[in-house]
Amino acid sequence: MTYVLSARKMKPDFEKNHSPLAFSRHFSRHLLISLLAMSLVSCSKSVGGNPELVGNPPPTSNSNPQNNFDFGNQLSVQKMIYHVGPVDLPAGQSVDVMLDKPAVLRFQVTEPVWIIGFEPKVIDGDGKSLTGQLLYKALVVNKHESNPVCASGNGGNPFAVATSTLTKVELPEGFGYPILPKDPLEAKVVFHNPTNKDYSGVVFSFEIQAIPMEKGKGISDVKAMLLDTDPCEHKPIAIEPGAFVEKSHTFTIPNNGNLMVANGLLSDYGVAVSLTHQEGDKASLVPFWRAEATLDETHRILDLTPNPFIDPAGKKIAQGDKLTLGVSFDNFSEKWHNEATGSAMVYLAPSDK
């Protein structure tokens, strides 16, 4: 059964004027729904927050019975939906102005959960989908967790990221990113409007799919790492007119692990994003994954293919190995492109060897 709980309005069916017979027939069902809704999640009041909770979907039929993941976990999946906004975006609203005034939502969960999926959307006030071109970048950060690729940073660790391609990410079955009720979470969203149309009441909506830890059996944790050309501040790149630019940044992996998922993130005028693995001192120039951009006639990015990178078995990464992020941009225009961004949101499962 599916249900929705809104922070602004909740009307359980059993509050309606049913007959005594109907009330008796459905009381236990509605009581169960209410108890589940009360236990899911809470969200602190913040800018434009409008969290909703969606009930458990039926179990999938293509689950892999060969791993240690409890099939019953699928019955415990919760969908937690958060809204950031609304904002008004006049035609041509540039990124540089919006970078200084991101929309921010602060929230926490009410029980320990494993996050197993993340789905971003851009919608209007009626919940209708809008073009992803209105989103420049959204970061969802765990403020209690240190950033493993930024020694000097104290702003928390991003564990989910979205850009205009609005890529949905799902972890392989049996893996999850752990979140506790004491963890302060923050979604920071930068909008813009490169189109020639005015938009009002624009909302960034993201759905977190999670399993309560007390109900999750056999789930292994993953570590989140945002590999960025600027891993601490996530500042954009300036591309001069008519230039083709390639940027790279190499990261040393602190622990043994298996790379499960990598979500490529690239802005307009982007060409490709890639990851290269260097084992120990062995030099490597060939990426094990490269996603290329599809652009429209104005060079706005429409898609990345293939994206995300997924390896259910996990690509082995040893402590001390290096991952190199590569991004490339082609500025066809006669103006400076000052808001280029490229990164990869990586999920690593810790390993003993």
Biggest beta sheet summary: 8 strands, mixed
Number of strands: 24
Helix content: under 10%
Mean pLDDT: 82
SS content category: mainly beta
* String of helices and strands: EHEEEHEEEEEEEEEEEEEEEEEEEE
Query: How many alpha or pi helices?
Result: 2
Distance between the termini: 42 Å
Features:
Jelly Rolls, 353 residues, five-stranded antiparallel β-sheet, disordered N terminus, 2 domains, eight-stranded mixed β-sheet, single chain
Fold blueprint:
Blueprint: E1 4-6, H1 20-40, E2 41-42, E3 52-54, E4 78-89, H2 95-98, E5 103-109, E6 113-123, E7 135-142, E8 157-162, E9 169-170, E10 175-179, E11 185-191, E12 199-212, E13 220-221, E14 223-228, E15 237-239, E16 244-252, E17 257-266, E18 270-278, E19 289-295, E20 301-305, E21 309-317, E22 322-330, E23 337-340, E24 342-350
Parallel strand pairs: 10-13
Antiparallel strand pairs: 1-3, 2-5, 3-4, 4-12, 5-11, 6-9, 6-10, 6-12, 7-8, 7-11, 14-24, 15-23, 16-22, 17-21, 17-24, 18-19, 18-22, 19-20
